Amino acid sequence: MFTILFQARAWGVGRGKKLFYFLLVALFIFIPSETLSAQTPEPRVFLPLIVKPDPGAAPPVAGEWPQVQRDPQHTGFTPEILGTNFNVAWAHAFQPDKVYPQVQPIVYDSKVFVGTEGGKMVAFHAANGNIAWTFTAGGPILASAAAGDGKVYFAAMDGAVYAVNAASGAQVWKTSLSRKGFSTAPVLLTGMLLLGGRDGNFYALNTADGSVRWQYRVPAPVLQTAAWDGGRVYFGAMDMRVYALNTADGSLAWQSAKIPGMAFKDYWPVVYQGKVFVRAMAMGELGVPPGTNPADTGAQQAALNGYDSNPSAYEVSLAVLDAATGQAAPMVIHYHGQTMNGATAPPCVDRDGYLVMPAPRAPREYLSGWGRLDVSRRMLVDLLEDTGPPPPDYTPGYGNPDENMSLTCTGNLILAMHTQEFNANFTGAFNLDTRRWTLIPAGHATQQMSTNTQGGGSNPASVAGGMVFHISLHNLIARTTQ
Q1: pTM over cut 0.90
Q2: Residue 447: which of 470, 468, 426, 420 has the closest Cα?
Q3: Which CATH superfamily is 103-265 part of?
């Protein structure tokens, strides 16, 4: 090409100029796009040529748990009514592969999908635990999958996002994106997949073929699974800011001020009532003094008044942001607990619209419990205290403040699951109708390769078709409830 241009100049001003400009245009038309991109800085936002409307998200199908905490807002709520006669239907031990503790079982099309640290995506028949198929990815899978439209979607540490056929396990497509890998779960919308990479890029993919719809770069790794609501996707990055992107085109809607804490590496935001609730790896609380009932209205209001008058005087572990602007929304009562070496697990939204969150046991004993927070009032309006005589040994549903537990809300129960069911077994179900806790006996099959560090957090239970699925110590445990 460059030899021809040199000869064109030798032909003289007339014909040479015309041929020179013709070939110059041809050069830019036919030169490979990757060559051009390699010579120019990476832009901050990649926009499509045609901006498509935000696809939105269809409501979850009854009897399924298709993505993290069931919906893109991560409410962790299902209207299913469960019994309290918990029995292990089947269990599967993932040794030597192991499962990262925050991986939540995904239930779709009568199958349960779990990814392993050994890089395998395993599909089980939900009814009996028989393995339907196993797919091997190119690296460890450290987060949950998402499932819909006959496909299972997940990302791995090899830097690729995969779609496999939910029925057969055959690969549908694979898109290699991040050289530093993925440790986040995808958010599934209609025709779109959203997830952040350890390289600092946040990606939107078309579910049909895995093509990149847009990507946006932030100045730090994205280790936290995102949440979506109303045309925006929300996530925390390791620069300790929360970002909101418009999912129609990938443009920045807002970025928050820096959030106090060490890392956004755990769990996911919860988007509810126009607010983004997100926990960093941090300590702190806004609550009542020791010896006071945590649900005491006057004491809670005094704490809120004190915070409102001088927020900088308080060390908190929860960020509450206005979903529209990213500005700090009025803080709510909250406590740091039910965690070891990481962030407190996110709340779930119960049948009455309250956020269920950790709370001290009245009157603030060492064992911690749970409370129901009214977002509009900014305070706890109910404690999940058992009205009957205490059961023997451990009180189900309560816990040690320094041990990992996670929550799921159903149409009648609050499921509080300990990350190590055999150890200090506080795992239980609170019945909102009878106000009684039911102990859920440990259901592990083996303790091989288990540790007591609890540094990886925990996974909330998944509920589908009247069954409860939970991962504890590298074991997938399926329970019936009737």
Answers
A1: no
A2: 420
A3: YVTN repeat-like/Quinoprotein amine dehydrogenase (2.130.10.10)
